[in-house]
Each structure stands twice: as C-alpha cells, then as structure tokens.
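Reminder to self: tokens first, then the designed residues, so the page reads top to bottom the way the pipeline ran.
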C-alpha cells in the first residue's frame, strides 16, 4: 500500500516530499486546500486533532509533526542509510539535531522576531545568540550534521534552516549559506521542489 501524505506545497508538507524522495519509497500526495480550511475537516481532524499539515498515513499508521515523520520514515525504510542504528554513536547527535529544529530553532526565531519577553533559563529554546552559535557549530564540522554522512537530520534541520534563510528569519552567515547550498544540490531535494512546484502551479498558487 502506498504511503499517503495529506499535502499542500506551501506548508511543512513540502519537506515531507523531500523526505520521501530521499527514502525512495512509493507515495501519493493528497492535496488539501488550506485556503478553504480543508485541513480542519472532520476527516483530517480525526487523523490529526491539531487540524494541521502534514499528515502521513502508512497503512494503519498515522504520523504527524514533520520531525516525527522524518524519523519514522528513516527508521522504517532507510535504516543505516538515513538513520544511524540504535547502537551507533552517531544516533545521539542524529536525534539531537533532528529535534533541535522544531524545539529550539523555530520557537527561538519566532521569539526573537516577535520580541517576546522571557527568561532564557525558563524557555526550552534558551538564548538566541547561543542558539545561533550551536547551529553554526553543527554545520561547520563537515558537509553535513554528521560530518560527511547525510542523514534524515539534514532534511529536518536543513529544511528549517533553508526556509528561514529564504524569508530572512535567520541571518545568512557564510556557514549557513554554504550548508544550504550543499543541500540544494541533493537530487532528491530537486525532485521534491519540482513536484511541489508542479502541484502549486496546477492549483493556481503561482
């Protein structure tokens, strides 16, 4: 049975297409018109009570949240290639950077942009400068987060960084820019971007 992704090309579901292209398994994209609020339909809310995209269905398995989807796909369909084994020393850094994007980078960037008042020691994303320094260190040790080894962590973390660079949510430092450019050369990312653009065009979004 083909994997089904409830999808809109201008949501985080676009990153899931990249994930699936890297994994290399068959999948179907089910377009959801977010402008009409279809993500809040009873059928989709039954799959994801948040009423948000992406939603991935793999047979009877339902996975939401982009990072969770990436980790699930890598573990199930590309172990060792895109996901370090459980006993691999790289497993720790792999999980760290996979979850750093949604739990630190996204709220940290939003807090900085919105000027939220908070005590860094009480917020999970901490201090903005420390967050940027950690990110710089992560992308400076080699071509990818695990040195010369590309993993699903690069899709999760890298997808977030590429989005924020594109919209000016994070400064385009030389390290960030070079890392994003390396990711841009991934054939799977190019295929995913082409598919997302094709869908956007077909629905009059561009």
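Designed residues (206 positions):
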């Amino acid at each position: 049975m083909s994997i089904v992704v409830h999808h809109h090309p201008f949501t985080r579901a676009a990153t899931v297409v990249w994930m699936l292209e890297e994994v290399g398994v068959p999948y179907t994209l089910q377009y959801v018109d977010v402008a009409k609020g279809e993500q809040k339909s009873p059928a989709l809310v039954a799959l994801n009570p948040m009423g948000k995209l992406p939603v991935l269905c793999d047979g009877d398995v339902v996975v939401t949240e982009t990072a969770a989807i990436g980790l699930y796909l890598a573990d199930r369909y590309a172990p060792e290639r895109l996901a370090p084994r459980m006993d691999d020393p790289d497993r720790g850094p792999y999980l760290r950077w996979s979850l750093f994007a949604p739990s630190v980078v996204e709220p940290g960037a939003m807090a900085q942009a919105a000027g939220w008042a908070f005590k860094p020691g009480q917020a999970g994303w901490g201090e903005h400068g420390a967050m940027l320094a950690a990110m710089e260190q992560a992308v400076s040790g080699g071509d990818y987060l695990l040195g010369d080894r590309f993993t699903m962590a690069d899709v999760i973390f890298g997808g977030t960084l590429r989005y924020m660079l594109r919209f000016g949510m994070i400064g385009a430092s030389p390290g960030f820019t070079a890392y994003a450019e390396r990711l841009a050369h991934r054939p799977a990312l190019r295929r995913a971007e082409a598919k997302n653009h094709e869908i956007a065009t077909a629905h009059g979004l561009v």
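The radius of gyration is 17 Å.
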